[in-house]
Amino acid sequence: MDIFEFYRKDRWPHVFCPGCGNGTVMNCFFRAFNEAGLSLDNTVFVGGIGCSSRVPLYINSDALHTTHGRAIAFATGLKLAKPGLKVVVFTGDGDLGAIGGNHFINGCRRNVDMTVICINNNIYGMTGGQASITTPHDFQSTTTPYGNKEYPFDLAEIAVAAGANYVARWTTRQVHELTKSMKSALQKRGFALVEVVSQCPTNFGRRNKMADPSQMLEWFKSNTVRRDKAKSAELDHVDLNLAGQITVGEFVDRNRECYEELIGVEKHG
Ligand SMILES: Cc1ncc(C[n+]2csc(CCOP(=O)(O)OP(=O)(O)O)c2C)c(N)n1
Fold first, then answer.
1. CATH number, domain at 103?
2. CB of 52 closer than 6 angstroms to any ligand 1 atom
Protein backbone atom coordinates (compact mmCIF):
# COMPACT_ATOMS: atom_id res chain seq x y z
CA MET A 1 0.00 0.00 0.00
CA ASP A 2 1.09 3.56 -0.61
CA ILE A 3 0.62 5.30 2.73
CA PHE A 4 0.90 8.72 1.08
CA GLU A 5 -2.35 8.10 -0.80
CA PHE A 6 -4.08 8.68 2.53
CA TYR A 7 -2.56 12.09 3.21
CA ARG A 8 -4.09 15.37 2.07
CA LYS A 9 -0.76 16.69 0.91
CA ASP A 10 -2.01 20.18 0.01
CA ARG A 11 -2.37 20.73 3.79
CA TRP A 12 1.35 20.19 4.41
CA PRO A 13 3.39 21.31 6.28
CA HIS A 14 1.45 20.00 9.27
CA VAL A 15 1.34 21.58 12.74
CA PHE A 16 2.75 18.63 14.74
CA CYS A 17 6.03 19.11 16.63
CA PRO A 18 9.10 16.93 15.98
CA GLY A 19 8.77 13.69 17.96
CA CYS A 20 4.96 13.94 18.33
CA GLY A 21 3.16 10.59 18.40
CA ASN A 22 0.37 11.70 16.05
CA GLY A 23 2.33 10.54 12.97
CA THR A 24 2.71 7.03 14.42
CA VAL A 25 -1.01 6.91 15.19
CA MET A 26 -1.90 8.02 11.63
CA ASN A 27 0.47 5.49 10.11
CA CYS A 28 -1.03 2.62 12.15
CA PHE A 29 -4.54 3.83 11.36
CA PHE A 30 -3.97 3.93 7.59
CA ARG A 31 -2.61 0.38 7.66
CA ALA A 32 -5.61 -0.81 9.69
CA PHE A 33 -8.03 1.03 7.41
CA ASN A 34 -6.43 -0.56 4.35
CA GLU A 35 -6.45 -4.04 5.91
CA ALA A 36 -10.12 -3.63 6.85
CA GLY A 37 -10.84 -3.07 3.15
CA LEU A 38 -12.61 0.25 3.75
CA SER A 39 -12.90 3.11 1.30
CA LEU A 40 -12.06 6.76 1.94
CA ASP A 41 -14.92 7.69 -0.42
CA ASN A 42 -17.47 6.32 2.03
CA THR A 43 -15.82 7.58 5.24
CA VAL A 44 -16.08 10.90 7.03
CA PHE A 45 -13.51 11.86 9.66
CA VAL A 46 -14.58 14.07 12.54
CA GLY A 47 -12.34 16.00 14.94
CA GLY A 48 -12.90 18.43 17.79
CA ILE A 49 -10.18 20.94 18.67
CA GLY A 50 -6.59 20.15 19.59
CA CYS A 51 -3.48 18.74 17.90
CA SER A 52 -5.00 15.24 17.88
CA SER A 53 -8.35 16.55 16.63
CA ARG A 54 -6.51 18.06 13.67
CA VAL A 55 -5.67 14.64 12.20
CA PRO A 56 -8.85 14.55 9.99
CA LEU A 57 -7.66 17.67 8.16
CA TYR A 58 -4.63 15.75 6.90
CA ILE A 59 -6.59 12.78 5.54
CA ASN A 60 -7.56 12.60 1.88
CA SER A 61 -11.28 12.31 2.62
CA ASP A 62 -14.22 14.41 3.80
CA ALA A 63 -13.79 15.86 7.28
CA LEU A 64 -15.71 17.81 9.89
CA HIS A 65 -13.53 20.03 12.05
CA THR A 66 -15.94 20.83 14.87
CA THR A 67 -15.89 22.71 18.19
CA HIS A 68 -13.89 21.71 21.26
CA GLY A 69 -15.41 18.66 22.96
CA ARG A 70 -18.27 18.20 20.50
CA ALA A 71 -16.81 15.69 18.05
CA ILE A 72 -18.96 12.82 19.37
CA ALA A 73 -22.12 14.95 19.16
CA PHE A 74 -21.39 15.96 15.54
CA ALA A 75 -20.46 12.37 14.65
CA THR A 76 -23.72 11.11 16.17
CA GLY A 77 -25.74 13.56 14.05
CA LEU A 78 -23.80 12.59 10.96
CA LYS A 79 -24.31 8.87 11.54
CA LEU A 80 -28.05 9.27 12.11
CA ALA A 81 -28.50 11.47 9.02
CA LYS A 82 -26.35 9.23 6.81
CA PRO A 83 -26.33 5.75 8.37
CA GLY A 84 -24.48 4.29 5.37
CA LEU A 85 -21.34 6.31 6.09
CA LYS A 86 -18.36 5.04 8.04
CA VAL A 87 -17.77 7.65 10.76
CA VAL A 88 -14.34 7.95 12.40
CA VAL A 89 -13.52 10.44 15.16
CA PHE A 90 -9.99 11.61 16.02
CA THR A 91 -9.87 13.29 19.41
CA GLY A 92 -7.64 14.00 22.42
CA ASP A 93 -7.86 13.39 26.16
CA GLY A 94 -8.96 17.00 26.68
CA ASP A 95 -11.42 17.03 23.80
CA LEU A 96 -12.99 13.63 24.56
CA GLY A 97 -12.66 13.27 28.31
CA ALA A 98 -12.66 16.81 29.75
CA ILE A 99 -14.77 19.37 27.87
CA GLY A 100 -16.45 16.57 25.88
CA GLY A 101 -16.79 14.12 28.77
CA ASN A 102 -20.56 13.94 28.85
CA HIS A 103 -20.87 13.44 25.08
CA PHE A 104 -18.29 10.67 25.41
CA ILE A 105 -20.14 8.84 28.20
CA ASN A 106 -23.49 9.09 26.43
CA GLY A 107 -22.01 8.12 23.06
CA CYS A 108 -20.80 4.90 24.73
CA ARG A 109 -24.12 4.42 26.54
CA ARG A 110 -26.12 4.80 23.32
CA ASN A 111 -23.54 2.68 21.55
CA VAL A 112 -23.61 4.86 18.44
CA ASP A 113 -21.87 3.17 15.50
CA MET A 114 -18.57 5.04 15.17
CA THR A 115 -14.84 4.43 15.53
CA VAL A 116 -13.15 6.77 18.00
CA ILE A 117 -9.36 7.13 18.09
CA CYS A 118 -8.39 9.07 21.21
CA ILE A 119 -4.76 10.21 21.26
CA ASN A 120 -4.09 10.57 24.96
CA ASN A 121 -0.89 12.62 25.44
CA ASN A 122 -1.70 13.34 29.11
CA ILE A 123 -1.81 17.10 28.52
CA TYR A 124 -3.51 19.97 26.64
CA GLY A 125 -0.92 20.01 23.87
CA MET A 126 -2.23 22.63 21.48
CA THR A 127 -2.70 25.35 24.10
CA GLY A 128 0.77 24.97 25.61
CA GLY A 129 0.69 22.23 28.23
CA GLN A 130 -2.05 22.74 30.84
CA ALA A 131 -2.92 19.71 33.02
CA SER A 132 -5.69 17.54 31.61
CA ILE A 133 -7.93 14.89 33.16
CA THR A 134 -5.33 12.24 32.29
CA THR A 135 -2.22 14.02 33.62
CA PRO A 136 -0.73 11.49 36.06
CA HIS A 137 -0.53 12.26 39.77
CA ASP A 138 2.48 14.41 40.77
CA PHE A 139 3.45 15.24 37.16
CA GLN A 140 4.28 18.78 36.08
CA SER A 141 2.36 21.01 33.70
CA THR A 142 1.96 24.78 33.26
CA THR A 143 -1.05 24.71 35.61
CA THR A 144 0.50 22.29 38.13
CA PRO A 145 4.01 23.71 38.67
CA TYR A 146 4.26 21.91 42.05
CA GLY A 147 3.03 18.61 40.60
CA ASN A 148 -0.52 17.50 39.80
CA LYS A 149 -2.31 16.73 43.05
CA GLU A 150 -5.33 15.20 41.29
CA TYR A 151 -5.61 11.60 40.05
CA PRO A 152 -6.37 10.84 36.41
CA PHE A 153 -9.48 9.56 34.67
CA ASP A 154 -9.19 6.16 33.01
CA LEU A 155 -10.85 6.77 29.63
CA ALA A 156 -10.87 3.13 28.54
CA GLU A 157 -12.44 1.90 31.79
CA ILE A 158 -15.07 4.64 31.58
CA ALA A 159 -15.97 3.51 28.05
CA VAL A 160 -16.33 -0.10 29.22
CA ALA A 161 -18.54 0.93 32.15
CA ALA A 162 -20.67 3.20 29.96
CA GLY A 163 -21.43 0.47 27.40
CA ALA A 164 -19.16 0.77 24.34
CA ASN A 165 -18.99 -2.35 22.17
CA TYR A 166 -15.22 -2.31 21.66
CA VAL A 167 -12.50 -0.75 23.82
CA ALA A 168 -8.73 -1.11 23.60
CA ARG A 169 -5.74 0.87 24.85
CA TRP A 170 -2.12 0.76 23.68
CA THR A 171 0.83 3.11 23.64
CA THR A 172 2.64 4.40 20.54
CA ARG A 173 5.36 1.81 21.27
CA GLN A 174 3.00 -1.08 20.53
CA VAL A 175 2.38 -0.42 16.85
CA HIS A 176 1.38 -3.99 15.89
CA GLU A 177 -1.16 -4.40 18.68
CA LEU A 178 -2.41 -0.87 18.02
CA THR A 179 -2.91 -1.51 14.31
CA LYS A 180 -4.72 -4.79 15.04
CA SER A 181 -7.06 -3.08 17.53
CA MET A 182 -7.73 -0.23 15.12
CA LYS A 183 -8.75 -2.79 12.49
CA SER A 184 -11.06 -4.55 15.00
CA ALA A 185 -12.55 -1.18 15.98
CA LEU A 186 -13.17 -0.26 12.34
CA GLN A 187 -14.92 -3.60 11.74
CA LYS A 188 -17.03 -3.41 14.90
CA ARG A 189 -20.64 -2.24 14.77
CA GLY A 190 -21.42 0.14 17.66
CA PHE A 191 -19.19 2.51 19.64
CA ALA A 192 -15.55 1.43 19.30
CA LEU A 193 -12.82 3.28 21.20
CA VAL A 194 -9.09 2.86 20.72
CA GLU A 195 -7.17 4.97 23.23
CA VAL A 196 -3.54 5.55 22.28
CA VAL A 197 -1.24 6.79 25.03
CA SER A 198 1.11 8.97 23.03
CA GLN A 199 4.12 11.20 23.57
CA CYS A 200 4.00 14.99 23.60
CA PRO A 201 7.70 15.76 24.12
CA THR A 202 7.16 19.51 23.70
CA ASN A 203 4.50 20.15 26.31
CA PHE A 204 4.52 17.08 28.55
CA GLY A 205 7.97 15.50 28.22
CA ARG A 206 9.93 18.74 28.48
CA ARG A 207 8.37 19.52 31.89
CA ASN A 208 8.80 15.98 33.19
CA LYS A 209 12.46 15.26 32.41
CA MET A 210 11.58 13.48 29.15
CA ALA A 211 12.27 16.14 26.52
CA ASP A 212 13.61 13.53 24.12
CA PRO A 213 10.75 11.49 22.58
CA SER A 214 12.75 8.28 23.09
CA GLN A 215 12.70 8.96 26.85
CA MET A 216 8.93 9.09 26.69
CA LEU A 217 8.83 5.75 24.86
CA GLU A 218 11.13 4.30 27.55
CA TRP A 219 8.71 5.64 30.17
CA PHE A 220 5.83 3.89 28.40
CA LYS A 221 7.88 0.69 28.28
CA SER A 222 8.64 0.61 31.98
CA ASN A 223 5.14 1.63 33.07
CA THR A 224 2.95 -0.54 30.85
CA VAL A 225 1.03 -3.47 32.33
CA ARG A 226 -1.14 -5.86 30.29
CA ARG A 227 -4.68 -5.58 31.60
CA ASP A 228 -5.29 -9.35 31.44
CA LYS A 229 -2.08 -10.00 33.43
CA ALA A 230 -3.07 -7.38 35.98
CA LYS A 231 -6.42 -9.13 36.27
CA SER A 232 -5.06 -12.66 36.52
CA ALA A 233 -2.64 -11.52 39.21
CA GLU A 234 -5.71 -10.23 41.03
CA LEU A 235 -4.38 -6.73 40.93
CA ASP A 236 -6.87 -3.96 40.55
CA HIS A 237 -6.20 -2.52 37.09
CA VAL A 238 -7.95 0.74 37.94
CA ASP A 239 -5.68 1.18 40.94
CA LEU A 240 -2.71 0.54 38.66
CA ASN A 241 -3.83 3.45 36.53
CA LEU A 242 -4.11 5.65 39.61
CA ALA A 243 -0.59 4.65 40.57
CA GLY A 244 0.67 6.03 37.28
CA GLN A 245 0.85 2.68 35.48
CA ILE A 246 -0.67 2.28 32.03
CA THR A 247 -2.89 -0.77 31.62
CA VAL A 248 -3.02 -1.87 27.99
CA GLY A 249 -4.84 -4.49 25.98
CA GLU A 250 -8.26 -5.21 24.59
CA PHE A 251 -10.67 -4.20 27.36
CA VAL A 252 -13.97 -5.34 25.85
CA ASP A 253 -15.31 -6.80 22.61
CA ARG A 254 -19.07 -7.34 22.67
CA ASN A 255 -22.15 -6.92 20.50
CA ARG A 256 -24.73 -4.82 22.31
CA GLU A 257 -27.43 -3.43 19.99
CA CYS A 258 -26.25 -0.11 18.61
CA TYR A 259 -28.22 3.14 18.66
CA GLU A 260 -29.24 3.04 15.01
CA GLU A 261 -30.77 -0.42 15.51
CA LEU A 262 -32.51 0.67 18.71
CA ILE A 263 -34.27 3.62 17.12
CA GLY A 264 -34.76 1.94 13.73
CA VAL A 265 -32.95 4.63 11.79
CA GLU A 266 -31.81 2.22 9.11
CA LYS A 267 -35.31 0.93 8.53
CA HIS A 268 -36.69 4.39 7.84
CA GLY A 269 -33.80 5.90 5.99
C1 LIG B 1 -14.71 26.05 24.17
C2 LIG B 1 -13.20 26.04 24.10
N3 LIG B 1 -12.49 26.02 25.24
C4 LIG B 1 -11.13 26.01 25.19
C5 LIG B 1 -10.49 26.02 23.98
C6 LIG B 1 -8.99 26.07 23.96
N7 LIG B 1 -8.41 24.79 23.58
C8 LIG B 1 -8.06 24.51 22.31
S9 LIG B 1 -7.32 23.02 22.16
C10 LIG B 1 -7.45 22.74 23.83
C11 LIG B 1 -6.92 21.50 24.49
C12 LIG B 1 -6.80 20.32 23.61
O13 LIG B 1 -6.31 19.24 24.35
P14 LIG B 1 -6.49 17.78 23.84
O15 LIG B 1 -7.87 17.52 23.42
O16 LIG B 1 -5.94 16.86 24.85
O17 LIG B 1 -5.63 17.75 22.48
P18 LIG B 1 -4.06 17.87 22.18
O19 LIG B 1 -3.85 19.26 21.64
O20 LIG B 1 -3.31 17.59 23.43
O21 LIG B 1 -3.84 16.83 21.14
C22 LIG B 1 -8.08 23.81 24.47
C23 LIG B 1 -8.32 23.87 25.93
C24 LIG B 1 -11.28 26.03 22.82
N25 LIG B 1 -10.71 26.01 21.59
N26 LIG B 1 -12.62 26.04 22.88
1. 3.40.50.970
2. yes
